[in-house]
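Hi X.,

You mentioned you wanted examples for the new student's onboarding notes, showing what a folding record looks like when two proteins sit in one file. Here is a clean example. The first protein comes first, with its sequence line followed by its structure tokens.
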Amino acid sequence: MPPSRHPPIEDYALIGDMQTAALVGRDGAIDWLCLPRFDSDAVFAALLGDERNGQWRLSPAEAAKPAARAPVIERSYLPDTLILTTRWLTASGSVQVTDFMPPRHAAPPALVRVVEGLTGSVEMECVLRMRFGYGRVVPWVRRMGDVINAVAGPDSVWLRTPVRLVGHQMVHRASFVVQAGQRVPFVMTWLPSHLPGPPRAFDTTEALAQATDFWTGWAARCSYQGKYRDAVVRSLITIKALTYEPTGGIVAAPTTSLPEDLGGVRNWDYRYCWLRDATLSLEALLRTGYLDEAAAWRSWLARAVAGSPDAVQIMYGVAGERRLTEWVADWLPGYEGSAPVRIGNGAVGQCQNDVFGEVIDAFGLGKQAGLGFDRHTAKLMEEMLSHLERHWREPDEGIWEVRGPRRHFVHSKVMAWVAFDRGIKMARMGLSGAGESTVLRWLDARDAIHAQVLESGYDRTRGTFTQYYGSTELDAAVLLIPDVGFLPGDDARVVSTVRTIMRELTRDGLVLRYGQPGEPLDDGLPGTEGAFLACSFWLVGALHQIGAYDEATALFERLLALRNDLGLLSEEYDPRYGRQVGNSPQAFSHVPLIIAALNLEQHAREHTRRAPQDAG
């Protein structure tokens, strides 16, 4: 592993306004913020470079002095909110910084930081480097009274504070002393550069109260009150923060290019919405009482995939954009030297036949929960199944976006089975205009897929489903076979598969995505990766399904212990280094966490994807 130049991923907290998000380090530095959307250019990009690429640090001056005794740092979210408090205990006193982004709705995006003296007096330091274009563009900066304005191209940022910052060599700095009981606000706002400013000042105390009321009120709607409520609510708040409020789309993560392999090239842009997340996200929201959010996500899904099934993509932008061209920000060295830094995602052009199963399963699950299912949705489903009738026998790139040859991936075939299975059930409920002859064709396709997977996707010698037909590689995605109802949990082939994956596809007890036992990954890329956290949560569910309840609970509680001190998870955990890796925080880790907790306590079983979706 290369020498560390960055804080561990676990050191970062998330704040956001449901249209974008910032990462705040334990040291009081905001190292990542894209404005005005999740997928916009970053204003602060130190996360993928250094402070010269944009950073806003607000912390005790003592913390920046190498010879000084390091202050004690304590941090937490205000209960059931996305409002971060960081407290420093220094030799001269204690101070707290509260960081949050007010829920935006129709207002411009704002980032609020409030310094509050708690005891004694503390000298604080503010260092602000605003850079547009992912750290490459140095803006023109001017002062107007208590406002600093930075402009470059289409972007303008306005900072309002009573503290006087002094600009020198393209950095703005300030030192000030905060006494016990004193509050010092900083408010940064983004606007398109052609609009007049500065924006009006607002009361930060009132904004904090309103943000607190919003988040606590939202969290109070959670219907789950079981043993793991704190972990579930924190994950739900994270999912809500990763939701683009205007459209209902849920991004996989607010970051790009945080590496799966430290120092390696497995770095991807996750600021988009994946169809593979569709049913799991919908299930998590429905089972915890968030019907409005589930409806918004399902509506986003229907709009995004509208059109010809031949043109369905595996991912889209937050508003349903289809062109997500991948390019490299070659001026950024990457997190801990992990280059290249990628913007956009080239996997958008891949063929993944499993997405049709995810979309149609989401339609069915939504209808079961009372969400709308009109004739346009029914027609879209029928067109997708017609497309799948013609193409399910073809190979694809699979759920993991392997940048290698297309294969007959077992998970893709299983999800094609799901698509026909759910389509048949909805047709028999009268939700589709498909005639009996069409339904009979779907039945034939469903049965053919089932037989083919059992014949070609199962290794009888080892007693396990494999990654693709004829292979010896394993794939954690087959853990979902009982979850989608392809086979029951007590089927001997399911039980044997679960046990084989536990023996051969784990590292320190955590599940890898795929691979050949004892051999490095063969997916067209150099290097390796950590354990994929979603897969370990899938193992929790699979163990529960085969009746290994104690093992399922023990693994789940071990996974909870891998979260950072704020309850956040990235994409992966690397046991080699004892660190989180990959983009963070990751929706695809938090959603299966929620579902695993609900399954362990049998909460809201009527909204699971395994629940019957018809009367028969």
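Then the second protein repeats the pattern, sequence line and then tokens:
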Amino acid sequence: MSIRFLSITVSGYRGRHFKLDMGDEEHSVFVMDGNTGKTTTIELLRWCFRFKESDAKYKFRHMWADPAHILDFEVEGKQKCLIEIQFKDDKGNHYKFIRETIGEHDRTRSGDKKTRGDIIFSIRDTLEINRGKPVLQGDKVNEFLNAQFRLGVSADYFCFDGEKAREMIRMATSEVQRLIDLIRQRTTHSLVQLYLRRLDDLRDNLLTQSSVTLTDRVQRSLKKKLESKKFELASHNDEIDRLNDGIFVYEQEVDKLDDEIRNLTEKIRSAESDTIRRKAVLEHELIISKKQIEQMRGEVYKNCRIWMEPQNHHLVMQIKELVRERGRFPDPYHTDLITECLKDPPICQICGRPLDSKSIERVKKLGMQIAPHEVQTFLTSEVVSEDSNYDVVEIRRKIQSEVQKLKRIENEYQRISLSKEDEDLFEERAEKARQREEFNGKLIESRSYLKDALDYKAILEHEVEQIIQKSDAFKKNKPLLDEIERLEIALNEAHDRMRARTIEVIGEVISRAASSILGKEFTAKLSEKDGLMLGEKGFYSAEIGGYSGRLILSYLFAEAMSQVSPIIIDTPVGNVGTHRPALAEHLANNHSQVILLCLPTELGGFAEKFAKPAKFKTIKNQPRE
């Protein structure tokens, strides 16, 4: 679908007040200094097109903050923010989209990870189609924009910036599966999805019709159980999707912080100062020493059964017997702890945090958890002593010696005095490491929750199947239900074939575009095994073309993924070298409208392709009214 943007007006969001007026020009170049609102504009467009009104609260992101604050933190009290986006389609219809947000920003809560300090009272969407016609409101706006133009699934690609390019580069080299999953979303065929939905409806109808032949009491009971389990399963699938989304975000954050920590470490190691180099050496020795101590202590723990006194074996067996008899958790950790956690108000007795509704349900389920077979086997096995030459005294002496060595290194490390600039490097890296551990903790926790959720999903699916098979009336339609399942498999296989062909086509398009920009000796390859790579004279590697080449590949991938014709680019060529003119030529030839949000330093050899310098439009953030 081809659309053309006419204007974008931002009023109040993140303290921004300006209008981007495209007018009747084919392409537009807006010159904007740093902190004027380039990234905010891109992220506002993504936010407006991806999230419907009822689901937009606390979903705005900005660079690496997810969520980010959307209101103006300098305004005290209640405030109203507006974004107005005007565009027209290739049939001449005029559209005016407005998202209004009312709320207030509480600076004391700016560190809150859910709201970033925003307290949003309401979000309201409207869409006027041709002046004087009825106006769409609420979630119907998002439904219309996605049905007509698929703006939601394209927003990440026709609204393009350096951060999105960085994400594409990472996926193309180290996260191939995620890259392919994006293409799978892009190639989801609406007709295949329609058939799959109809097959689901047919299955539900068959189950409903089958229940008519049952007695009223059994019918009501089975139908109620089935509906309840299906609703629970659907809700659980939503939870799994949410967890997967969270894991994706946390993985990105950990990867980003790993890169930043490596860069800071390299700066420290390559510093000219002998003092900072000595501190870096001592730091490395500290890490090695701590690992050695940890390994030796782990060895002691691993062999504890060998050196443990025989009289203690009886105590261990008593504990195992207690756990085995309970079958779940030993008191007081079972009854007392769970009871204390669920008191009013419900508070975790381990970490002291208030429990939300989901946490309360998880605590309740602890009381129903039965130890698996492997645990029961361990609980019934005897604790036996073994003859061994394992010398506990010697290993203890080694640990003490290493601990003394560690203390000496730590003392020397602490005595080294650095300049303020060098000290800032260490402090910045320490802060990045702390952030990394925080996000990695969330990642590990989310993965654990996801495993539990997938296990529970399997249980629910099994329970649904058991309910269906309990009735002979349901079994009568089993052949039809089996046929529906076979049809679903066939449709999914057809979709997989379409996906494979789409990957092939997208790869060919990207390869031809890369050749036109970088030269005939360059090609590109997209595959499910290797991801997206640049090739030179038939040799493919992630290193070919350097950062500039990979950045160009990310542009080309975005073009292939977008389903609308315009492209809006934030700081487009900061890391593109000598290929700026060729990239500009390519973008101009392949898009009906190009809108550039450029820093003043990014104009040369690029922006002139889209507008004459006299027509560059300088945008300043206007003062608040």
